[in-house]
Amino acid sequence: MQNLNSLCLTIISLFLIYTNNKILVVQGVTSASDIAALKAFKASIKGSSISPWSCLASWNFSSDPCSLPRRTHFICALTCTPDSTRINQITLDPAGYSGTLTPSISQLTQLITLDLADNNLFGPIPSSLSSLSNLQSLTLRSNSFSGPIPPSITTLKSLQSLDLSRNSLSGYLPNSMNSLATLRRLDLSFNKLTGSIPKLPPNLLELAIKANSLSGPLQKQSFEGMEQLEVVELSQNALSGMVESWVFLLPSLQQVDLANNTFTGVQISRVARGGSTSSNLVALDLGFNRIQGYAPANLAAFPALSFLSIRHNNLRGAIPLEYGQIRSIKRLFLDGNFLVGKPPPGLVAAGTAVSGSLGDNCLQVCPGSSQLCSPAQKPSSVCKQAYRGRPMP
């Protein structure tokens, strides 16, 4: 019996040695350049901002970053290539890390994802990021990065998503933005960017550059060839001039937010025969601009339009009757203008499903039973002054 027990122990020992050897065989050894880049990355973060429970606290270089299993070291924030030799993703936890982004990050040439969002990183964005030729997603959202957007970023030919929003970036947008041929989503909102909008990447689905200091008109050449663009968010800038027909006729456009700019007019002249278009436009916000003249009646030709705001502009004349015939409309905001006359019956009739506001205008009749008629209309003295004593239409 004792011999049998010894034999069993021997077999178990041999099995464990074999198993351990197999583990060693499948364990990769991370490339020296990647380890050096990770060390530089961690060193550029202030030690006082690395909480004991955070991902970076587990980055202990006494073990290999890509070795398996990783139970105590490198427990989160990075992943490795299937052969366990290169780092291909860094997704940093939002743990309040403070520090800079080291230029040595460029050594991680197999990175597909770099996500450092929701921390307190500061300083410039390194131009060396251009070496990350495999990068598909770059997210630096909600940090304190400053300085210009490095033009070298526009050489990242595999990039599909770029989110630099909620930082302190300044200067002009790179003129070579359109070279990002694979880019699908671009968010540069809530920065300090200035100047006009250059020619944009042709395959964008979503464009967001709201809450900056962009200026000048919207130019057709900036959006040339953008057949797939669905969402445009350019509110809270200093964009000016006319919003022309071509904007609304971008073939895939669904949502447009141009509120809080200094646009002075809207031109919608191209409407298909029969009074409608093939547009997919669902939501349009032109509120808080300086748009003058009549409310554009041709907006009623967009068959999917559900949300429309032209609030707080300088619109005059009557509300187009066509607005009461938009079957898809659910929310309509025309308040804060100088509109006169009666609202279209389709908007204020009992049982209508349209919400929003026609208040703060010069309407002579707006039924109190309709919630659209709130708040109250402007005092008649204000309306008369706006029309300079001439009879209101």
Radius of gyration: 29 Å
Largest sheet: 13 strands, mixed
For this structure, what is the CATH class of the largest domain?
Alpha Beta
Beta-strand portion reads 15-25%
Report the strand count: 25
The residue ranges in which pLDDT falls below 50 over 5 or more consecutive positions are: 1-5, 7-27
Q: State the helicity in percent bands.
A: 10-25%
Rounded average pLDDT: 90
Structure commentary:
The chain has 393 residues and is α/β, with parallel strands linked by helices. It folds into two domains: 82 residues, no CATH class; 278 residues, Ribonuclease Inhibitor (Leucine-rich repeat, LRR (right-handed beta-alpha superhelix), Alpha-Beta Horseshoe). Helices cover 13% and strands 23% of the residues. It has five helices and 25 strands. A 13-stranded mixed beta sheet has the order 1-2-4-6-8-10-12-14-16-18-20-22-24, with no helix packed on it. The radius of gyration is 29 Å and the shape is elongated. The N terminus is likely disordered.
Write the layout of secondary structure elements.
Elements: H1 2-26, H2 32-43, E1 78-80, E2 87-91, E3 98-99, E4 113-115, E5 120-123, E6 137-139, E7 144-147, E8 161-163, E9 168-172, E10 185-187, E11 192-195, E12 206-208, E13 213-216, E14 231-233, E15 238-243, H3 245-248, E16 255-257, E17 262-266, E18 283-285, E19 292-294, E20 307-309, E21 314-318, E22 331-333, E23 338-341, H4 345-348, E24 355-357, E25 362-363, H5 380-386
Parallel strand pairs: 2-4, 3-5, 4-6, 5-7, 6-8, 7-9, 8-10, 9-11, 10-12, 11-13, 12-14, 13-15, 14-16, 15-17, 16-18, 18-20, 19-21, 20-22, 21-23, 22-24, 23-25
Antiparallel strand pairs: 1-2
